[in-house]
Amino acid sequence: MKTNVNLWWILTGFFLLMAVVYTWWNIIDRPDLAWHTAIEWVGSVALLFTAAMSAMIAFYVDRVRRAQGGDLPEDRLTADIDDGDPELGEFSPWSWWPLVLAFSAGLAILGLAVGTFLLPVGVGVFLVAIVGWVYEYYRGYFAR
Q1: What is the pLDDT of residue 12?
Q2: Three-state secondary-structure class, residue 30
Q3: Which pLDDT score, from 0 to 100, does residue 16 have?
Q4: Has residue 1 got a pLDDT over 80?
Q5: Which end of the chain is more exposed for a tag (fewer CB within 10 A), N or C?
Q6: Rounded distance between C-alpha atoms, residue 104 and residue 110, angstroms
Q7: pTM of structure
Q8: How many domains does the chain fold into?
């Protein structure tokens, strides 16, 4: 994560440098105009805001790294592959409920696009699908 922080700070410096170069280039490209009218303000401000956004991301990632109290396995040279393998939870590869859930979302969007009478049908199918997906381990063959 320390590498990520360093990369974001390097990007911040790069965008600041590019903002200065871009602004200076616009000024010297139009010597007949005053300096404040020769600047192309949209590009200069956009590059400055990009530098500010990358600085905010760098600051945030640095604070998260310090709050964790240590480096990630990716930062250590002696780490094994299994050190970075977290427990992701339990998933049901045989479950049909995500497909029903996607169908309900499609039906609701179709209701917004074509006719509003389909929207309540899509919401009803969504409620059935989300309840079925949440409680799929509480009934049937895979009940626990």
Answers
A1: 97
A2: coil
A3: 97
A4: no
A5: C
A6: 10
A7: 0.55
A8: 2
Distance CA(83)–CA(89), nearest Å, equals 17
Does the residue 54 lie in any domain?
yes
Euclidean distance between CA atoms 18 and 44, whole angstroms:
9
CA gap 42, 108 in Å, rounded: 40
pLDDT in tens, 70-123: 777 777 788 887 777 777 777 777 888 999 999 999 999 999 999 889 999 999
Q: Please state the rounded mean pLDDT for residues 50-64.
A: 96
Which pLDDT band holds residue 2 (cuts at 50, 70, 90)?
confident
Q: Which domain holds residue 114?
A: 97-138
> Cα(144)–Cα(136) distance, rounded to whole angstroms?
10
Same domain, residue pair 58 and 115? no
Tokens 């005053």 -> residue: 34
Q: Are 111 and 82 in contact (CB under 8 A)?
A: no
Tokens 């006719």 locate to 115
Distance (Å, whole) CA 83 – CA 4: 19
Do 107 and 69 have their domain in common? Answer: no
Answer yes or no: are the C-beta atoms of 98 and 133 closer than 8 Å. Answer: yes
Q: Given 76, 109, 125, which residue is the final one in a domain? A: 76
Q: For the chain, how many residues are written?
A: 144
